[in-house]
Amino acid sequence: MRGKKFSLGIMTGVLFLAGTATIGTHAATFKMPSMRESSTVVANIALKPQSTSQLTDYAYDTVDPTSPYFHQYLTPDQVATKFGRSSGDINNFTTYLAKYHLKSAVYPGNLALKVWGTRANLLKAFNAKRVTNGKTYRTKVTLPAKLSDQIVSVIGVYSKKPKATKKASVTPSLPKNPTGPNTDLSKNAFSKRYGALKFADHYQLNNLYNKGLTGKGQRIGIIQLSDFKTSDVLKYWNQSGVNDDASRINKIYPIESAKTGNFMLSLGVSGAQIESTLDVNQSGAVAPDANIDAYIGISLDNVTSSTSAYYTTFMQAISDNRDQQLTTSFGPNVELNSKWEENSSSSMQDYSDAFNIMLEQAAVQGITVFRASGDYGPREEPSKSLNHVFSTSPYQVMTGGTSLPYTKIVKGKLITVNKERAWGNTYTNPKTKPSIYPGSGGGFSLLNPTPRYQIGVSGVNTFRAIDLLKYTKDGYLIQKNPQIIFGTGSGRNLPDVSANADNMTGYATYVSGNNLSYNPKTKIITNHPSKTWMVNGGTSFVAPQMAGANAVMNSGRKSPVGFWNPQIYKFATESDSPFTVLDDADNNNDLYYTGQPGKLYNQATGLGTINFDKLYGKFESEQ
């Protein structure tokens, strides 16, 4: 999973696929489909709660067994009454926006407004002006004081872009295993080697299956920035021996319609399509009787900005309140000011603040949110500076990655991993030239302070690290004599928990679509339709697997487990902890951070791996 900049052009989405592929033997001339760009821009206004501190306290109270509000989850209407803006406040906004021919609707909960219309009318309504700061610029917005005083962030309003400006969006990039899966295995054997049973067996979720818990009656919401083919998911589920009923999958389009999604899929298989496909694959296979709500926030040529599309999609999922667990492996960008969406009306900090309020709404509604921590160690975007994929909100479970034990010959070299360790791979294919290496995302948030549930837990805000890699403009060089570093940090520590994410011990994915090539001499595009099985890794697998496991646990409960984090950090300090701490100092790093011997937490793997049978028992003991 990696955030990247890209512009939608003639060959956007074309991707060479490694793995076991069936490609059409006869090339066909491909006529590029056409679709008119939407003239409608979707923006958002994130609103201040009646009391930010009371909203935060209530989120914690819902999972505190000593509180009278324990498991007293709220509906969106109750959120609106208790914490949201008044009807009068909302009417003031909608009346003002209507004067500029803009449509608006409040999200249930009264903590945000969705606004849509032409870009010209948005610019007028928000009095948007371009403000230059050196080589970068932002869009400054101004509203009447009685409205602006209620606002946390205006998201998705942008002034005219310079010709050279890149368009911000997200293309996940998944580490691949060079060998595809063996699809001749029985369904059960396939799942144990490449699928949900591999996860379930290793992390004791199978014990809950044996108790009859399969996610029945649960819905899993997935936040995505690309469409996917339902048929690809069904083929994967069938191969894995799980329920492949198409009615399990429900697609929701908060920005543009399925027509746009199909158009973008027709341009060729993309990393984002693979990401969206595997999110549904994994969550639906780990919880084989749960249903899936795929919230697909797409905008052709970024007419609606990536920050606004992401917020809109997340906010609709939370305010719909259909799903007791949400998961995402996408993000609008990384936590670096230099990489933040240049045309944005929201600063990185106020966008983060808006995101936290939104996820607090999820918490008080009893929704557990999971997000992948990243796939390139402590630097999701190649840089000298440590950085993480957005968002690092403390109101979600950040899922990191490990490597399972294995012995393989890779490029003529015997590689042995003796026991489960943090995922940080410089050893299977070291390069003498600058390169990019895969590893679990982890470290310290630049935007969020250390949350109360992490304070006092051993290992939090201290670290042990090894400077394995040296940054150059083209990637990283492996240091010949890496130094050990001890230090302290501040901010929200991540990840929270971890599970297998190494592509060398990874999971299967199936994807089909157009495989396009362009001849610049003849100016002809040809298509070899492809059907590909591949084995990938990444924390992008872990987040939906955790969401599936949460659905399995919730299917055996009277009330949802809700906001995990305060609960799991407390469980980790108890004698019968459901976590296996990966605290080794050696051969246990995410490309930088290592284990901290004797401490409960480290920035390579968080609290460690989960025994879901024990975790379920801990949650049950508090009902």
From TrEMBL:
PROSITE patterns reported for this sequence: SEDOLISIN
Entries under InterPro entries matching the protein: Peptidase_S8/S53_dom_sf (IPR036852), S53_propep (IPR015366), Sedolisin_dom (IPR030400), Tripeptidyl-peptidase_I (IPR050819)
Positions of region (Disordered): 166-185
Top-level taxonomic group: Bacteria
GO BP: any one term: proteolysis
Species, as recorded: Lentilactobacillus otakiensis DSM 19908 = JCM 15040
Gene Ontology MF, one: metal ion binding
SMART domains: Pro-kuma_activ (SM00944)
Keywords, comma-separated and alphabetical: Calcium, Hydrolase, Metal-binding, Protease, Serine protease, Zymogen
Bias (Polar residues): 168-185
Keyword Hydrolase in annotation: yes
Name of protein: Peptidase S53
Transmembrane feature ranges: none
Domain Peptidase S53: 199-622
The keyword Ion transport appears for this protein: no
Cofactor: Ca(2+)
Gene3D superfamilies: Peptidase S8/S53 domain (3.40.50.200)
